[in-house]
Amino acid sequence: MEMQDKIIEKIKSDYSGWTGGVHKEAVDIVISLIENYDVNIEDYETTQEFYEALEDKGYIHEAVDSYVPVYYSQLYYWVRDNGNVVMDAMENYCYEIKDVESFEKMIQLGYFYQLENLVHEVLFNDWIEEYKEEVVKK
Prior knowledge:
With about 140 residues, the protein is an all-alpha fold. It is built from 8 helices and no strands. It has helices at about 1-15, 20-35, 45-55, 60-65, 70-80, 85-90, 105-125, 125-135. α1 packs antiparallel against α2 (about 20-35), α2 (about 20-35) crosses α7 and α4 crosses α7 (about 105-125).
């Protein structure tokens, strides 16, 4: 568990400047993926292998989806500054306005898209490799 604890500590340190709500949620999701899912980070040689295991089991999607707001007031508050993200999500997921059942679902899609991208950004690091290098140096 030492490696897991050191990696979580590093994530918290590296991303302490992320102050926005969605940004904090992305960090929380990554920490949750490390701590609470049945993919043990210490069983992997590289961070990429750990990421692929999470992806293969659908855990990243599941964790991100659980953070998407369901209350309209939260969605409307978020979309005020993120309308462009909603449009990017629709384009990326190949949705057209006619395909979405409601404006709120469209906003949720945008929120999911932004949060998922931030989680991927946090996960695309070399924590396992850096930890192992530190251990070898000692």
